[in-house]
Amino acid sequence: MNFRIVFMGSQDFSVPALEILAESGCRIEAVVTRPDRPAGRGRRLRPTPVKAAATTRGLRCLDPASVKSPELRAEVEKIHPDFIVVAAYGGILPGTLLRLSRRGCLGVHPSLLPFYRGANPIRWALVQGETQTGVTIFELAEGIDTGRIILQQAESILPADDFGSLSARLAKTGAELLATALRLFASEKVVLSAQSGPASEAPMFSRENEKLDWSLPAEKVNNWIRGLSPSPGAYAFFQGKRLKILSARAVPGPRNPEPGLILESHPEGKSTRVACGGGFLDLVKVQLEGGKPVLIQDFLRGHPLKPGERLGES
């Protein structure tokens, strides 16, 4: 495949797609990604995962402040690519940019469209307790993930999956599906079909979404934890500090009158049980504000969680 490609992506999810394009014989004329951002305790500027991967391969990178910038449009217009490929870029492409590719713009989206259109399909699938999701390769159009479908592949969501594990698996599936789609274009065998069925949305998460609501049933609390782990992490307050719950187990049980109450805490038994609106949550891995992620038994050695204390909202 000798297609001229402009690749647009920013997140870890995007990297396998970029790498498979680079290894497939396509000519990646430019990689467009989000600008460097402050990160870590020192708040030093850090490139996106895509920029880091592209730089390692010696690919040309563009990091415009806005996807609508005239400068970006001029650069892409000069390239006159066969395809613009977009995978977790982090912005909605304007029609003026979409129309600059000769054969279309292809999106790699981690859901079975039209389910979970939007910025956070993986997180919302986990939060909603779905048992199946997938990847869609589709033709970008003006609108949010509304274009015609080229290929789809379903993927089971495992009970142990969190955002990190599911995202990594879907990224690999998406890269392989993208390569298949380009081979179909090369052989003129592509069939595009309109999206059908009810649509659902997967909007951005806010900081408020990260706060655990202990009044929910344990299974739902655990789903929020899975959707936000390993980063940014769902949290509750413990002794005035944020305590991120990175991994837990839901235990069925009756409705509890005091959600958030610590019922049991045994360092030797490696467990801490918290009351939910229905059932219980056994904490497995936590991270106290300013600290590192640790298993609950290691956390309890320095920070005893006593029965009768509460994991609260502030």
Q: Return the average pLDDT rounded to an integer.
A: 94
Radius of gyration, whole Å: 22 Å
Q: Considering DSSP H and I runs of 4 or more, what fraction of the residues is helical?
A: 25-40%
CATH superfamily of the largest domain: Formyl transferase, N-terminal domain
- Got a strand count? 15
Describe the model.
- With 314 residues, this protein is of the alpha/beta class.
- It has 2 domains: 4-186, 3-Layer(aba) Sandwich (Rossmann fold), CATH 3.40.50.170; 207-302, Formyl transferase, C-terminal domain (Methionyl-tRNA Fmet Formyltransferase, Chain A, domain 2, Roll), CATH 3.10.25.
- Helices cover 25% and strands 28% of the residues.
- The protein has helices at 15-23, 49-56, 70-79, 95-98, 121-127, 163-186, 218-228, 296-302; strands spanning 4-9, 27-32, 37-39, 44-46, 61-62, 83-87, 105-109, 132-139, 149-156, 234-238, 241-255, 262-266, 271-275, 278-288, 294-295.
- The mean pLDDT is 94.
Secondary structure topology:
Elements lengths: L3 E6 L5 H9 L3 E6 L4 E3 L4 E3 L2 H8 L4 E2 L7 H10 L3 E5 L7 H4 L6 E5 L11 H7 L4 E8 L9 E8 L6 H24 L31 H11 L5 E5 L2 E15 L6 E5 L4 E5 L2 E11 L5 E2 H7 L12
Parallel strand pairs: 1-2, 1-6, 2-5, 6-7
Antiparallel strand pairs: 3-4, 7-8, 8-9, 10-11, 11-14, 12-13, 13-14, 14-15
